[in-house]
Structures are given as structure tokens and as C-alpha cells.
Amino acid sequence: EDQVTQSPEALRLQEGESSSLNCSYTVSGLRGLFWYRQDPGKGPEFLFTLYSAGEEKEKERLKATLTKKESFLHITAPKPEDSATYLCAVDSWGKLQFGAGTQVVVTP
Amino acid sequence: EAQVTQNPRYLITVTGKKLTVTCSQNMNHEYMSWYRQDPGLGLRQIYYSMNVEVTDKGDVPEGYKVSRKEKRNFPLILESPSPNQTSLYFCASSLSSGREAEAFFGQGTRLTVV
Lengths: 108, 114
Fold this sequence. Notes:
The structure holds two protein chains of two kinds.
Chain A: E1 3-7, E2 10-14, E3 19-26, E4 30-38, E5 45-50, E6 56-59, E7 62-66, E8 70-75, E9 84-92, E10 95-98, E11 102-107
Parallel strand pairs in A: 2-11
Antiparallel strand pairs in A: 1-3, 3-8, 4-5, 4-9, 6-7, 7-8, 9-10, 9-11
Chain B: E1 4-7, E2 10-13, E3 19-25, E4 31-38, E5 42-51, E6 54-57, E7 65-66, E8 76-78, E9 87-94, E10 104-105, E11 109-113
Parallel strand pairs in B: 2-11
Antiparallel strand pairs in B: 1-3, 3-8, 4-5, 4-9, 5-6, 7-8, 9-10, 9-11
């Protein structure tokens, strides 16, 4: 059965303390892996698409990487405004499956 | 401004009372979908539409109906709501079915069925 698992469930960081979020997946026929940011009371906001192992994408302090079995979202020198829940999703044969998310809190 | 608009944002209703959650997008997107989000379960797709008059079931369609009579609108209908449909609902739109993951999401509708 296809599965998408995100870890940790929650992460508390000091401002400037870099860290990584993990998204591991067991799906057949991966067509793409996607990262989103979700602020409280809002809908998810699309961040990145990764298609193949070794691919990397960057946006400000965020960098997403992909291997054959997992993806990492690296947050470098985070700021309080990076506090959000980060969701990953995989497209397996046209079906989008989401993980439960990692809630990140960055304190000043 | 490009946006997906859902209404209402909050709704409390009683079991069995039919309700409709509206969704409208102003980006001329072909693909629209509805999700529900429950703690620990992530987003799960309810229904999707690849274009006008074309709709199909997602992962959790039971108890829901949709229609797509115009490109911009994709309402979600609960004919006889039950307490297990208490959830946070999101409408999303994207350019086409090949790019459904690169979606714009609405603000969400928090539904409570008592």
C-alpha cells in the first residue's frame, strides 16, 4: 500500500538554528514529489516540485532534496516567519497522496 | 488577484440537513478538487473535476456530491451530513490535470456536524 510519512510531527527551533524535515514514501510509479507550506487558518501554499532522485530546489531559506525513498526539506537559519506546517505529497500514477505534515515553530 | 474563494468559512449544522459549500476561482483553471483535512490523516481528496461537466471520485467520496456547470465554480454538496463529516475542507484549483499538485487552495471551510 502506498504510504507517505513525515517526521518529526513537530519541531521547535531557535531563530537561526538550521534543521531538516523528512518525507519518506513507499509508492509505486513516483511521478513527482511536492512540498507545501500551510499557515494556521489558511490553505496550503505550493512550494516545490521534485521529479527525480538527486534533484534539488531552493527558495529563500528552504531547500528541498529528493532520493529514491525520501525527501528532505532543509530550513537554513530560520526566522519566526518560517513558522508553519510543512506538507509533502507524492503523485503516484496520477493520484496525489499527502503526508500528515510537520509543524515548525521558530522562536526569536 | 489570483484566488480561490470558499464560502462559508465556518459552518455548524445538524445531522441530515443538506448543505452546500461554494468554491470559485478566477484563474481560468481547468482542474478543481475538494479535500478534507483531519488531524493525523493529512489531506484526502474527495472529488475532482478535470473540466466543465467532467467530475470523478477521489479517495473519500462517500456522502458527498459535486457539480461543475461552469469553469470557475465547483460546489461541494452534503445531502445528509453526519458527524463523521466534521472536518476542515479545502477547495483547490490548478491549470490542468497534469499539474494538479501545483494548486492554489482556498482558505478552508471548517464544518461541524452535530
